[in-house]
Amino acid sequence: LSASFRLDPAFTVAPVSRRTFGSFVEHMGRCVYTGIYEPAHSTADADGFRQDVLALTRELGVSLVRYPGGNFVSGYRWEDGIGPVSERPTRRDLAWHCLETNEVGVDEFVKWAGKAGVEVMYALNLGTRGVQEALDVHEYLNQPDTTRLAELRRLNGADKPYGIKLFCLGNELDGPWQTGHKTAQEYGRLAAETARALRSAEPDLELVAVGSSSSAMATFATWESEVLEHTYDAVDFISAHAYYDPSDGDVGSFLASAVDMDHFVHSVVATADSVGARLKSKKRIMVSFDEWNVWRQADFASGASAANPDEWAVAPRVIEDEYDVTDAVVVGSLLISLLRHSDRVTAACLAQLVNVIAPIRSEAGGPAWRQTTFHPFAITSRLARGQVLRVEPSGPTYETAKYGDVPMVDAVATHDAEAGEVSVFVVNRNQGEPVTLSVPLGFGARTFEITEAWTLTDGDLSASNTVDAPDRVVPVATEGVTVEDEILRLELPPVSWSAIRLA
Ligand code: AHR
Questions:
Q1: Has 291 been annotated as catalytic?
Q2: Which InterPro entries does the protein's record reference (predicted)?
């Protein structure tokens, strides 16, 4: 089997947005407590943050972190998490059926984000709360002058405003499971009012309206249309969330999850642009794909990975999915899809960061390690630089139950003209055979050498990284990759993800 595509520096999509490499820290399960924060841990710093997890976060190449939820945020009172820790209340978290001690709140999180070197994307509660609370938390976070809440922030140790630019106007309010679930009309009005009020405080905020929780929602696309009718002028982004579940055993469809992500993005962009056309607006709404990942949701639905409903525990184990090789190949392919849409998807968050469906795992009092999915994310974040190049792979296809006929090989490339570097990211979804890939490099007289090449695959596709074998699955140097006569050639093993850097 063989596949090919041509690289041409003139076929640019858009600059790589660093925000594509975002992640997500929700007060959920053990993401915060014993994830990023564990004061009694041997690696904890003076603020109680695990330095082993911080080091892995930096290595992952995360640019942006959404906080504090998720479903959690729709019942959250932000002011519970500020001031002296001993005076903070313990509350019920109805989203995940557990107790929230509020030991970590926004001041601690911003401090952690500074250490991790990531931008904060702050999610507002528009489930049980409204315009006033959104204004209050914004005043606390960003107000420079001597107002009551800016003073309170000072009193709590932060003299300077945090300068957070990116705010989510709620979370998944299209979902009946969401505390404060709303119709598109109800939500659209509230989001527009909140956005306008926030903008009168700080005009250049970047605001994300809630889009669909998945493309399978009955309200998919009509939700976006109705919400944007209300909010078009007041927001910059519409969100998208997608989780891909391999539980039904249909590996062929699962490997083609990026086909669904492509369709999701096209549909949301088309819907947003049609609202823009109706409103005669020149403005273009961007997509914030602020929750995406592989997630065995069937295990959660059956209760196998959910909190015990008979208990109210603090930081219980919830959806600590262990990722295998196939999952990592799918994560790599979803990053290819996100990059391909860089003209419209300019922010994205792998959900979540630690323990909860996460690339990083940690044990209380124990080690932290990289899941299989860590690797394609870290390599893509490191190598994707400059402009995204459009590529059109030609090659074999296969039939899937969910998405029909899909290409076996999918790819994207980036070109950093200043550094003189090109990176190619490619996936082989075929389960049976390798595919030989040839990539003519259309850069004129310019010659290239391979500076690094990585492939993630394994003879055992169900292999994963565990506390006892944390490096069982790692990317290996790609065998037999060559550049001759300005053609890049390599063999893509079955079910594999590869990244090649040329300079
Ligand atoms: O990331 C886990 C959960 O998935 C989030 O809390 C919610 O927004 C989504 O349904």
A1: yes
A2: Alpha-L-AF_C (IPR010720), ASD1_cat (IPR055235), GH (IPR017853), Glyco_hydro_b (IPR013780)
